[in-house]
Amino acid sequence: MSLSPSQTPLSRPTATVMRFTLCALLLLPAFNATLHAQSVPKAVPLDDDEPKVPKAVPVLPNETRLAEPVKPKGPDEDLFDYASMSYDRSEWSIASQSYGQYLQNYPSGRHVPAALFRIGECYKNLNQLKVAETYWQEVVNRYPNSEGAPSAAYRLGAILFNARDFDQSARMFALCETKSPLPQVRLAASFNKARAYQMLGDTKRQMAALSAVIAVKAAKPEDNPYREAALLSLGVLLLAEDKKSEALPLFQELLLTAKDDTTVAEASVNAAVLLIETGKPEEAIPLFERALKIPGTSAASRSIALVGVVQAMFAKGDYDGVINNYNANASILPEGETRPKMLLMVGNAFRMKKSYARAVETYLMVEQSASGSDAAFEAGYWKLYCFYLLDDKDLAEFATGFIAKNAEKHANHEFLNLARLIRADHHFNKQRYTEAANSYTDVQIEKLPAKLQPGTHFNKAWALAEAQRPQDAIAAFSQFLTQFPAHELTAKALARRGLTYRDTKDTANAMTDFKRVAQEFPNSEATELAYLQMGLIAAEQRDHKATIAAFETLVKKFPTSPAAGQAWFGIGRAHYSLQQWAESVKALTKTIEVDRKTYLDQASQMIIQAQYVQQNIEALSKSIDDYRRANAKGNVPPNVLTWLGLKLYDQKNFPRAAQYLALASTPDAPENTDPRVWNYLGMAFLETKDFETSVKATDHFLKVTSDGAPKARGLLTKGRALLGMNKFDEAEAVVQEGLAFAKDGKPQALLLILQGDILMALGDKLTAENQAAAATEKYKGAAAKFMIPAQFFDDEEVTPEALTKAAQSLEKSGQADKASEFSKLLKNKYPSYQGR
Predict the structure, then answer these.
(1) DSSP strand E in 245-302: where?
(2) Which residues of 474-488 are buried (b: 16+ CB within 10 A; e: fewer)?
(3) N or C: which end of the chain has fewer CB within 10 A?
């Protein structure tokens, strides 16, 4: 059984994805989209032809003169009326001359303020603005409370604004705002005063002026045409001062009331930005999308909206939304440093969707468009991470290049450390442990995110162990166990350190680690290995009882363990060593059942030896048969086969005796076979009437056997086999060979009986051929051979057989009386003989 390393790939690092604040983005000049607020305002207009910015309502004499119950009479009134008539007819030159004459003739007349104002109006209409300015200035300076002063002040405010004298412009608009009796004029003055304060950078007074405009809530929008612009401008100012809670309601009001699409678009973008910043992406997204759908949305605001919706969707984990919005609006990507940051977010969305190839493409765009930037650095890291997840074959080379490229500028950045970790893990996952061990050494593990540190320590130690650096591995595992004593990999670390201790022959420490695993982590995967190693160590130390205890615990707790076969074999072998044969056989039989492929031969041979030692014939033969069925070429010790064959022969179980004796023989090298095997094998085949094989086996025996009783016994077997094959002459020759040296005793007696059997068989053959006389001679010859052992040899087996066969041959030869005598002798001397 092998212990597997940590299978968890490099966890996603907790590095912060590069973000950017949309509020700040709104305030950048490149992204300004607010009307009349952040860019330099256009000059305040003086005539009614300017369509974009409303101007103060002009003060006309017939509109602003106070009603008089009684009109004075006199030449001064006539002159003023004549000038006014020319003025009303737009006869500007005549009117200006007439008003001038009035001023000259009546310097203290009651119409002096109006005449001064209207001369200015005439010169304005004659495109002599500088001259007009002097008359309006005189109205304001000399007659600030006059009916024309507010309009004169408004005109001066516009002129001064266009001349970029914003301080005096603001003062003139303030005077108009204070003095004018007309709401529309006051609103226009307030709004333009705010613009002047804006140009002065006087945000406080600008905000106050805008607030005054906003405060006028007319029944009809046209009664306060400045309110939308004021709301938008004030909202942006509050946003710039980070007063989000005050700015948001202004934008939200515009969203409800504004009629102008451009204003709605700008309000949508600003409100959405604020909602993003206050953690409400769900509310922000529809506003960004609304702005993107409005045709009049400026390019800058459209870019902000795209960035905003992408960031909001990313924040809430809607990666499909990020990708879809990017694809739909690819033509309006923001410019400047925001573009690579947004592309980085899109790449991250692809990565989170596990579209690693698309993510890599997007990260490459960031690197190419913003080379050397922080965004490019971050994109480079995430590209590397995607290559890791794609299991790119060149990942190690990519990682090394990324590290080298950024080593100087980003020496202490966590991405550089994570890149080293990616390289190490890549080697580790490819089982290139030497390279992995070297790479892990480069990683500053203590600077990794906390959740990555345990696994990195563990994999480093594992790689060192696999790289054949046991002492370094032991130190690394020890560091892991010290720093993370309760980690889920603790059991594996102890087990692997134990294996490493074993590699260094430190059995004591190895056993200590394995016992800790077994005791402290009884249900862990490593516990299997711990019990296995405890059993193996005990076996090496010949502590058979400890071996049995460890392995029995393993198979009890983990019956389906890959090491179960090894454990059962260890149990069987330990019992064998203790000569506990029955227990050994039981365990070894279980070994074959669990892992036949690995242990069939070893376990079967040990089972056979255990049964042999117990001299259990039936169990031994079954064990051999089972083994031979499983492996026809399996090797069984010849001495065991010989013993079993001889025992079965003694039991007269000749077929089975022949089976095992044949297995014990070596026909191709008969000299290597115990002669006894050939002898008994020949006799067993003779009994089973396999005469030919019997002859072959007996011949092997005879080749290595000298003259004497054993050889005579062998010749007897061969002769009887030849007789069985009706080879009478060859059988007789074998008998003669035996009788040549067997002059007495049982061998001679058996050979004589065989010789008689040959003659009897010949007589039977002749009888069958109707050759009675010749047959009789053969029977007589046979009787003569049988009578010798019958009369002159006394043996419990041989003599009664000789008597029986002598009587039979005498009977067939026509000597009935003699046959009767031999039968009586057999009955008297061997009354219990039943014959063969």
Answers:
(1) none
(2) bebbeebbeebeebe
(3) C
Among 56, 61, 43, CA closest to 179: 56
DSSP 192-223: HHHHHHHHHT-HHHHHHHHHHHHH---SSGGG
With vertex at residue 640, the alpha carbon angle to CA 635 and CA 643, rounded to the nearest 5 degrees, is 145
Rounded distance between C-alpha atoms, residue 620 and residue 821, angstroms: 50
pLDDT on residue 31: 29
Judged on CB neighbours under 10 Å (0-12, 13-18, 19+), 272 is: buried
Burial class (CB in 10 A: 0-12, 13-18, 19+), 387: buried
Sign for the CA dihedral angle at 45, 51, 55, 57 comes to positive
Q: Does 713 score more than 70 pLDDT?
A: yes
Tens of pLDDT, residue by residue over 286-307, are 888 888 888 888 877 877 888 8
CA angle 37, 42, 44 (to 5 degrees): 105
Alpha-carbon torsion 820, 825, 827, 830, what sign?
Answer: negative
183 vs 216: CA distance, rounded Å: 9
In the block, which residue shows the tokens 């000059």?
Answer: 43
41 phi-psi bin (left φ>0, alpha ψ -120 to 50, beta other) = beta
Distance CA 378, CA 815 (A): 124
* CB of 689 closer than 8 Å to CB of 658: no
How far from 366 is each of 206, 360, 396, 494, 625, CA to CA, in Å?
41, 10, 22, 46, 75
Structure tokens at 172: 């003139």
Q: What number of residues does the chain have? A: 836
Q: Enumerate the H helices of 725-815 as residue ranges.
A: 728-739, 745-768, 772-792, 798-812
User: Rounded distance, CA 178 to CA 170, Å?
Assistant: 12
Tens-digit pLDDT profile for residues 196-234: 999 999 999 999 999 989 888 877 777 888 888 898 899
